[in-house]
Amino acid sequence: MIAYIKGILSSIQDESVVVDVHGVGYELICANPFAFQSALNEEILINTYQYVREDTLVLYGFKNEDEKYLFKKLISVSGIGPKGALAILASVDISAFVSAVEREDDKFLTSFPGVGKKTARQIILDLKGKLVMELTVSVEQDQEVAAITGSETKLAITEAQEALKALGYTDREIKAVIPKLQAMDNKNTDEVIKNALALLMKN
């Protein structure tokens, strides 16, 4: 298995990044490729997971070991493949996700694309008690507040994305600023849009 790739981040695409390692370009599929934008044309180390099936060989890239571990656990759940796991990782706060699993919060889990009630129950059944032990993230004592906050932030960013598309911005432009928006303390959708416009004007 390829545990990580270290080299020059040569390009960022809508669903992947390319890392040049001594003249060989490795394409890594990522939940949010633009999260690596600050390292473009610089040396970078990206954690990887090598996904192998009879007719498939794909390298997935992650910002840290927690993301990689959660991805591996998610694809072990019946009903969730790599694409579904990436969709969850693209917008989830890991500590809020762990809190939701521990609290058996179906509503939070079904807010992710492709996760219905049956899959949410399977996630809880398969992962409850396992994520807290392995992940380095700390789960807040007030787990309900953490989960609700994460869900509200995700919803606000999703609504803001649609508004920005209506204003004429492309998916590529919008995805490029999402990591910065996720790091901000946005109170609502209007605030997300305001901050996103400020970031887009700088780019």
Could you walk me through the main structural features you see in this protein, from its secondary elements to its overall organization?
The radius of gyration is 17 Å and the shape is globular. Helix 1 packs across helix 2. It has a 5-stranded mixed beta barrel with strand order 1-2-3-5-4. The chain is an alpha+beta fold. About 30% of the residues are buried. About 5% of the residues have low confidence. About 50% of the residues lie in helices and about 20% in strands. The protein folds into 3 domains: about 60 residues, OB fold (Dihydrolipoamide Acetyltransferase, E2P) (Beta Barrel); about 80 residues, 5' to 3' exonuclease, C-terminal subdomain (DNA polymerase, domain 1, Orthogonal Bundle); about 55 residues.
